[in-house]
Design a protein that fits this description.
With 430 residues, the protein is an alpha/beta fold. The chain is 33% helix and 20% strand. It has a seven-stranded parallel sheet with strand order 6-7-8-9-10-11-12. A hairpin with an 8-residue loop joins β16 and β17. 52% of the residues are buried. Bound molecules: zinc ion.
């Protein structure tokens, strides 16, 4: 007797007709034709059942603050940082918690059940950290929130920030952040990478730095980050976020850099939506894409997870909480359009990002947490193309959100009465 059986599921690896049995919040079996009874049975009807989406790079302290205290007129990263600096002194814990909880509601409706959020520690009041630590506890029953101590204004630019970052870690923020390309000099950037990696090594923490988020091909802090990762024995625990300068780097240099990253078992977290919006701003035409080298990194065996970064905040006026929007942009911006490419990018918004966050019990295997999403699509490539409705979002075997399938009614003589967008993929293309 199981608590739940999902019948006739298609899995991301292509297996069809699978039944998924759940007992006490854990996946007990995945195989065709499970005959046992269950308290609840859900017929997936051949649709794709996947582990939940994971966002490895987000700013939950800034989300939904668009328009406060004013809009970003130039649309650039630097005006965004300046604008956030204007807003920061006025932030209250109550408003931060309110916005974060509202965002988490949206995330759940999209099947996004784990988020790594940077939390700005540049204001020594640390109201951001206080608020998000409270949010982490409040949402824990349905969403895993992991927090990064992030010195938005630079670790060495203002007095008091080094101390505030340490205090945020003491309060329970669990990942060490940084922003070496925003320090005053290249040397300060390199020093910050070393100091922050040392803190992570001393405390046994992970590292995730905003790194080289610029079009300057000589911004090479990723090299320092890889070297310090090896030096401090942090292999497998370090991620470089953005890495957009790599787009513009010399090919010969990159041919040396990527093996260094692979040696350090560094992960990369590109953020295709915001990178396409913010990079290349100093170009006229041709305009660079400003997205890091995802296909080359995947080829080198470097773990790549894709993040959203922002939803409706000083840097980005768009965003939906849907990691499939992120993967959809990545398909276009990287020209990764083959069936295998799309499968790899689907992994980048699910399993790869779960590995970056170190999530335990994540996955669609017996013994994993019974956390799953049923999508109105039949395979990962179709999921990215359609960004379809989440028919069911399941956590620990319980449905926590559901959306009716999208079906349009047609009133045309001689044509079908209904259109199901998920039924359009030509058979020859699967
Ligand atoms: Zn960011």
């Amino acid at each position: 007797m199981f608590d739940l059986i999902i019948r006739n599921a298609t899995l991301p690896d292509g297996r069809t007709g699978q039944d998924i049995a759940v007992r006490e919040g854990t996946i007990a079996a995945i195989e065709p034709g499970i005959t046992a009874d269950a308290g609840e049975v859900i017929d997936a009807g051949g649709l794709l059942v996947t582990p939940p989406f994971v966002d490895p790079h987000f700013h939950m302290d800034a989300t939904l603050s668009l328009g406060l205290p004013r809009m970003n007129r130039s649309g650039t990263l630097l005006e965004g940082i300046a604008l956030w600096g204007e807003l920061r002194p006025t932030l209250t814990k109550e408003a931060l918690i309110d916005r974060a909880l509202r965002y988490c509601d949206l995330a759940i409706s999209k099947g996004l059940l784990a988020v790594r959020s940077h939390v700005d520690v540049s204001d020594p009041r640390l109201v951001t950290a206080e608020a998000l630590l409270e949010v982490r506890d409040l949402v824990a029953p349905y969403l895993q929130l992991q927090l990064v101590a992030f010195p938005q204004d630079g670790y060495y630019r203002e007095p008091g920030i080094t101390e505030a970052l340490t205090r945020a870690l003491d309060m329970g923020v669990e990942v060490v952040g940084g922003i070496p390309h925003f320090e005053r000099t290249m040397e300060d950037g390199a020093r910050s990478v070393e100091a922050l990696c040392r803190i992570a090594a001393d405390r046994g923490l992970r590292v995730d730095m905003h790194c080289d988020e610029t079009d300057d091909p000589l911004s090479r802090h990723v090299e320092t980050l890889a070297a310090q990762t090896v030096r401090f024995g942090l292999q497998g625990r370090v991620a470089g976020s953005h890495l957009t300068s790599m787009h513009s780097m010399d090919n010969y240099y990159v041919s040396k850099l990527l093996p260094l990253m692979a040696e350090a078992q560094m992960a990369a977290i590109p953020n295709p939506l915001i990178n396409m919006m913010l990079q290349g701003r100093h170009d006229t035409y041709p305009k660079r894409r400003g997205l890091t080298r995802i296909p080359q990194m995947l080829e080198m065996g470097i773990n790549v997870g894709l993040g959203q970064d922002c939803v409706m905040d000083p840097w980005y006026s768009m965003g939906t909480g849907d990691l499939l929007d992120v993967a959809h942009m990545a398909v276009h911006a990287t020209q990764m359009g083959s069936i295998d490419d799309k499968r790899a990018l689907f992994d980048a918004v699910t399993v790869n990002s779960a590995r970056i966050m170190g999530l335990e019990g994540y996955g669609l295997e017996p013994g994993c947490h019974a956390d799953m999403v049923i999508l109105q699509a039949t395979d990962p490539g179709e999921a990215i193309r359609l960004r379809p409705n989440r028919i069911k979002v399941i956590r620990r075997g319980k449905t926590i959100a559901e959306t009716a399938p999208e079906v349009s009614t047609l009133m045309l003589d001689g044509r079908p009465g209904q259109v199901d967008p998920a039924a359009y993929a030509p058979k020859a293309a699967q």
